[in-house]
Amino acid sequence: MTKRTYTDPTIQSSEITPERMFLNRRSLIRAATAASATMFGLPAVGSEVSAEEQMLDFTDDPNRILAAEQTPYDAVTSYNNFYEFGTDKSDPARHAHAMSIDPWTVKVGGLVNQPGELYLEDLLGGFELEERIYRFRCVEAWSMVVPWVGFPLSALLNRFQPKAEGRYVEFKTLYRRSEMRGTRSFGSVIDWPYREGLRMDEAMHPLTLVAVGLYGKTLPSQNGAPLRLVVPWKYGFKSIKSIVEINVTDRQPKTSWQMLQPREYGFFANVNPAVDHPRWSQRYERRLPSSVFNPNRVATLPFNGYADQVAGLYEGMDLSQDY
Ligand SMILES: Nc1nc2c(c(=O)[nH]1)N[C@H]1C(S)=C(S)[C@@H](COP(=O)(O)O)O[C@H]1N2
Ligand SMILES: [Mo]
């Protein structure tokens, strides 16, 4: 398995924390050389990320990824949204382990020339994993900086050969009531399975990632094991977790949050400090870890800081209407 590091030119040096949390490089190197006992050759979740590892100096990196303000592993994995396991931020970490993730299959269909349902191992075979440090911002105005491990969604889609008339991509999460307590108690809130969608050009954009790990380890269940999307210029809810189905369509798919509250959540959901949520401002975000005493408030950037790469996708659109 080859590893590459990805430079995020948009992460500013102003985001360096006093603690200087650096790329957890050692565990990545370990991951690359370890016998692939775990599914992707990444160390299993639960193997510890020591404070020392998180602090590793990365000054020899010409790309200065060190400038990233990475959110500590514990915060990334303990403050989550995964409604299948409850609506409290602590529910996913407590209850997502009930979801069995092995074996796992993903069905890809719709407007593709090579539809199929594949075991995860077969689906992922041959993809080169990369580490990418992305800002990630929830619509609820908290944010993190996370070193994800994954590969571009475009690589996965191309394997199934989308047809020319395919204009959108629809995603569905596993829906297994017996293992997902939130789908039992909140079954009437979201029309399960959780669904998301992207326009084809968004899905094919090189920033759009299928993540299978974070901090150099396999994804914890609460973060969407064994595979989830990460679309860094959009609000967090677009980054659907624990994907079991992908369909290429010619019509804009309905998404879970749109179905729930169409006036509050649009299809595009691009991070936009200029367009408030009906119930709160989107101009600032709380960068985790954040507390009452240290809210760690930072200004939200257009397209979450990725405007140079993605603003062109929306030329000619009124983003206050197409929110
Ligand atoms: N299946 C599923 N995917 C989901 C969600 C969910 O409830 N169910 N929540 C979304 C929301 S609102 C956010 S902010 C992110 C949170 O990702 P994280 O827990 O890895 O930070 O997951 C998104 N993906
Ligand atoms: Mo979110």
Question: What is the secondary structure topology, with strand pairs?
Answer:
Elements: E1 4-5, H1 25-33, H2 51-54, H3 73-76, H4 91-95, E2 105-110, E3 116-119, H5 120-124, E4 130-137, E5 142-152, H6 153-160, E6 168-173, H7 181-185, E7 195-199, H8 200-204, E8 209-214, E9 217-218, E10 228-230, E11 243-249, H9 256-260, E12 284-287, E13 297-299, H10 307-310
Parallel strand pairs: 1-4, 2-11, 5-12
Antiparallel strand pairs: 2-3, 4-5, 5-8, 6-7, 6-11, 8-9, 8-10, 12-13
The structure holds ligand MTE and molybdenum atom (MO).
Question: Can you walk through the features of this model?
Answer:
- It is built from ten helices and 13 strands.
- The chain is of the alpha+beta class and 323 residues long.
- It has one domain: Alpha-Beta Complex (Sulfite Oxidase, Chain A, domain 2), CATH 3.90.420.10.
- Strands 1, 4, 5, 8, 9, 10, 12 and 13 form an eight-stranded mixed beta sheet that branches.
- A hairpin with a 2-residue loop joins strand 8 and strand 9 (217-218).
- Mean pLDDT is 84; it is low at 1-38 and 54-67.
- Bound molecules: the ligand Nc1nc2c(c(=O)[nH]1)N[C@H]1C(S)=C(S)[C@@H](COP(=O)(O)O)O[C@H]1N2 and molybdenum atom (MO).
